[in-house]
Amino acid sequence: MWTSKRASYSLTRLYCCASPKQLSSSSGPKMDYNAFLSEVSKRREPSALRELTKIVFAAPKETISFSTGMPNPSSFPFAEIKVSLKNGEEFSVNGKELESALQYLPTTGYKDFIGLLQNFQDKAHGPQDWNTRSIIVSSGSMDGISRAVDMLINRGDPLVMQHPLYSGVETLLKPYGPKYILAEQDQDGVNPEWLRSALENYKKTGGKMPKVMYLNPTGANPTGTTLTTERKKQLYKLAQEYDMIILEDDAYYQLHFLEATPVSLLSLDTDGRVIRFDSFSKVLSSGLRLGVVTGPQSLLRQIELHMQSTTLQTSSLSQVLAHQLLQRWGDNKLQQHYKNVREFYKERRDAMLEAANKYLKGLAEWNVPTGGMFLWIKCNGVTDTNEMVMTRGLGKQIILVPGRCFDVDPSKPSPYIRAAFSLATKDDIDLGMMRLRDLIKEEQALSK
Fold it and tell me: Is DNA damage given among the entry's keywords (predicted)?
């Protein structure tokens, strides 16, 4: 984010930030970020026009700019955008703020919105050193994750992957052909001791060691598990020992069902080896497409360079609308909203657990989700749920997701299914679990 008000800049000065450098925290070692970059990322260079956009937005008002091809907002047909909230609140976007909402912005995001996000991150994860860390607003968290993968992974690289894994990440990674080192989960999420053993076994092969660890720590998709603070500390220590960058994909951070808010890996990061991905999709609107990437400046600069050549920026309108809303609410109202959202999903989780206990006892096994939107169910006596769900399940008017969708090898048989409790009513949840009971019984009979 550019805060200088001087009108004179040089492109040389702008470009000097493009090369990843060594950064260090007061308590951690120096990180050579260049060693983590993919060959593609190392070849990225700044876009002169996108760099000039930063200058335009940072320059004093009296500065005359002939530099960019921004459209004149006076030619746009929109005069005002009015927003009405379900709680009765209303606000409007007009004037200069509307111009910002309808105009190109610097790639990193809307300056006022980023300032607000920095304050929120300081409150949620402890004071951050914004001299060494920064924020980029992405088009949903998945957009940020995909760019981080492009930045860090070469084809065939080894990668520590939480398993079962979010199917979207498996689809994203497939073209890279990574060698997976699986971070298997139990009822409390990734087990650090299991992962240490897997890393040591992989080390014995003599191959290149992984430089990236992907974790989905809160209300993991699909398992619903949440890592304890102690496990996070152990996993961070493993990342230090094996020199890995952690991708902390925490889209369900505000959808935990615990007494205390989970401690983030970002808050434990003393070295500058965590890139955190937050999302407003689950708590404000998935259609706004707003994600927040927080991490070391040098690495986020590489993500910025990627965005400069593709999307240019995240929707200005979405950023301005979110900024208006969050600024009006402040932290207290925002936290109350998060609490309301958690209670909403917790009620549905409890309804699904009640229905599962009513209909599936003896037929299936599950753990109580501590966050997220899903119940991860193991069907007893069923080798693979794929045909059961995709063919016979549709015939019984129930749609589920077969477990093989969450494996690094989607062709591998799986006895699991994922059931989402986010959209279904309590009555539908009860009826759906009854239909699932019948489906499992039929499948068990066919397997004999």
Answer: no
